[in-house]
């Protein structure tokens, strides 16, 4: 077996909560709590979950935009969190990030050509003279026109700005892209364009994606494997078809049934979850989902379920499924 | 047959911006029946929110409602005195907004904010208002109502805040509840709770709901009747089953095909090419013509009129011009 492009082992990221007059640490928000998975080259892994479940923090900690608390992130076999700053910088062009908000992720005073080309010059991959032609090429690849190079971000629509964001990530010719809710801020008709662009690029460049989204239907479209997160933990991880045909974790089932289906003739049998997501600073004991789970038994309150393979690479953390 | 509660007649709301006049709502006519849920769908900038704001008379400069009528119980809201409008706003017509975080006042308790319309519109005593407020908090499904009454908005989660907004909107038993993207900022499992709540309210109190959304899934679940808007115009209107079974306008068809649907994965998503036109430079043609795969020469020359076809289905598209009658 080949080594995976990315291996995440027991990753934890806790944010301290400061309180009192001396700013002592009074607790921790367990944003990412023991998450493990691997990602092979050319794969697209979707991370889904509701706000506050730690999916974005996972993405950022993997790229070491945030320092980890515990665990290991291996990229092509190198532990990213063990690298020195200079070494990490050398590795940066290999892994890029596409942000959610195409409005705030571009500097309004910098022309898009510069925004896209800046990193290339900075990393000394290209000289200033060659960069311009290359940026034009990248713009075309991302569905924009070469003459857009001298325009400012405000001259573009939301969908176009997201294309610029993608172009900027792509310019460095990365192997791995973390896309953090790249289509959430866009309208349906534009969203479809960007999803298609991302999947075309993946095919052309054999890219590996970690695709973070709250929208299961978008993830189903773009990803080969899907992981579902709840309160900082991965509760289910399976190949796409397996997960959508046979969701095992009660949370995944509820999440799927909660999505409104655009078909008025279908009476959906919805599992409506009661209550809100508990606070990640004080997560429930045992299985974190037990407070909202319609099937919870006594064991769920006391014992943390193991995240285990139930066959065919379908991982799930639930006491009820394991039996 | 239920009566019309609200009737928009040729409503026009313009915004005077430095780059020109934006016709945000451009000759829009439709009506909402008593006890009906009407969904207005469209992408950002199509004028769906401005239509609702015009109804509440809350359009602020540089925007101005400049033409048409909005009939409520046979009375034109646009000609009412501001004083009389205040009796209707929040009382007979109430509104909830997209952002439950910003639409509550952070320095007032939940109780203060729910009792305010009761004291103002219903003339209740403080004691009665408090009793009613606690009932309302329970009605929208929040436990420990008496404790919530004394809390501040920051102590509540997003879903709970949206429930409080609904409680405030319901406080005076409105005839019409306007909900502007009420679940867009919420997570799907919370969205399911709020949609359930709104359905219960509708069946229990027979409140008409005007729901503004961009999500066709929400439309299918909630609506009785649907209005589709594009660039300030109504381009299609139909009962919900008819619309989904038989969408007429190429834009509506495109919207339905472009949305990824769970468990119906295609290799490639359908896309509507291009983007929404610049609202300042609209001519007298079909605003969708440059993105439409069926575009004909007439589409570039002349604007189609909203025409009534069979099954109460209206569409503004030259493709169907034969066989319909101009309404």
From TrEMBL, chain A:
ABC transporter domain: residues covered: 6-256
Keywords attached to this entry: ATP-binding, Nucleotide-binding, Transport
SUPFAM superfamilies for this protein: P-loop containing nucleoside triphosphate hydrolases
Gene Ontology MF term list: ATP binding; ATP hydrolysis activity
Top-rank taxon, per record: Bacteria
Stored PROSITE patterns: ABC_TRANSPORTER_1 (PS00211), ABC_TRANSPORTER_2 (PS50893)
GO biological process, one term: peptide transport
Keyword Manganese: no
Alphabetized Gene3D superfamilies for the sequence: P-loop containing nucleotide triphosphate hydrolases
Signal peptide annotation: none
Family in the record: Belongs to the ABC transporter superfamily.
Name of the protein this chain belongs to: Dipeptide ABC transporter ATP-binding protein
Organism: Paenibacillus agilis
UniProtKB/TrEMBL annotation, chain B:
Alphabetical list of Pfam families matching this protein: ABC_tran, oligo_HPY
BP-aspect Gene Ontology terms: peptide transport
SMART domains, sorted: AAA
InterPro entries assigned to the protein according to its UniProt record, in alphabetical order: AAA+_ATPase, ABC_Ni/Peptide_Import, ABC_transporter-like_ATP-bd, ABC_transporter-like_CS, Oligopep_ABC_C, P-loop_NTPase
Keyword Transport listed: yes
GO molecular function terms listed in the Swiss-Prot or TrEMBL record: ATP binding; ATP hydrolysis activity
UniProt keyword list: ATP-binding, Cell membrane, Membrane, Nucleotide-binding, Transport
The UniProt record lists the keyword Cell inner membrane: no
CC per GO annotation: plasma membrane
Record-annotated membrane-spanning stretches: none
Gene3D superfamilies: P-loop containing nucleotide triphosphate hydrolases (3.40.50.300)
Family assignment from sequence similarity: Belongs to the ABC transporter superfamily.
Name of the molecule in the record: ABC transporter ATP-binding protein
